Amino acid sequence: MYINQISPLLGCQPLKTAQIKQPKQQNIKEQRTVEYSLWNGPSVSFEGRKKRQYSSVLAGKYEKPSKFRIARIPNLTCPACGQKIMTRHGYTTFLDKIRKAKEEDYLTILDEYKEYMCPTELEVFDSIKEHADRIVKEGGTPHITEIVKDLRQIKLPELEKIQLDKVEDMRDAIQTLPGAEKRRLNEKFNTLTEIIVGLNKKAPFRRKTLIEWVEKCKISDDYVKTELLDIAYSFPSSSESACAWIVKNSGKDKQGNDRSALELAEKLVSIASTSTDHVLARNIELNHDDITNYMAMHKGCNSEKTDKSFMEWYNESPHERHIFIRNYLKDVKEALDKGKIKDKKYKDYIKDCVLNIYKLSKGNVDYREEFCPETIKDKSED
Ligand SMILES: [Zn+2]
User: Fold this and answer.
1) What are the E-state strand segments in the chain?
2) Least confident piece of the model among 108-117, 246-255, 315-324
3) What's the pLDDT score for residue 369?
4) Residue closest to 358 by CA, chosen among 369, 348, 347
5) From ligand 1's centre to the CA of 34, what distance in Å?
6) How does DSSP classify residue 56?
7) How confident is the model at residue 26 (pLDDT cuts 50, 70, 90)?
8) Distance from Cα 296 to the centre of ligand 1, integer Å
């Protein structure tokens, strides 16, 4: 990231283009070092991330993420959240349908797409639906925009309460800092409180801005900084909290307009469409474009995963993720067994993927027994 910042000054291309001309690994190392130095707190460990774990024992099966054929199989289980993934084609069909529909039919259409929604959007949809059913029962006509505004009245105080508690956690975290530094930060936290409760009209609260502020903030104690950063990241985001979703989307958009019912309806489904995830994060590994390093995933779930290592991501909810990944593998296997993908490159996808996961997790995540028992003997030898 530093390279990108200074590259215009040096008159050269930003990293992405420059990478082509330079040995890739060198750049990758450089990027990671920058990140390590940002995250050297005790709670975050990058053990095992620095070393290259993924070797080319398996013959290279390269493909651009956009061409990854597995992502075109309909109704796969999302390995991150367990809901169904929508193919790009499926998403286009949805858009076509909802854009042609009358507003009163939006909820019925959304209901048909429920199984594809990511967990937060599903929770939001269920609250909207519940509210709408009540309105119908009382003889009224439900409007999505109005319902979302009503829900905001309930959710905003809930969200503010959570956020204010986090500010208190931040105040606790800086107790050990020198007096002057503590006072300076406490003043900033006062402003933050004003922003959260809407007293500062010029600056609406944005989680991203808060994180960026903490990242840039000069704090003498690295441990305290890491703690503050952890708290900043734990503020509810609209992708993980239904409360935050409703508050964010019931407000004005960037142009200062209310969001239309159509916009809201599309938003509930848009991140359910397919994306190709790199099992081992893209910028740590040279062979990241090998199909054995790909899994299809919800667009939304993939952007949540960002560049976490496989194990960091898996350990966020190991019990659920273990089942979701298994279901994903099962769905893909079924499609491959039915001959839905002709390309020979994909013939051993399941086996390769299972072995890749086994290796990345140092044997902790093991689906070999179920999907490729024949590899167990061979593997124990190396
Ligand atoms: Zn998902």
Assistant:
1) 274-278, 294-298
2) 246-255
3) 94
4) 369
5) 30
6) T
7) very low
8) 10
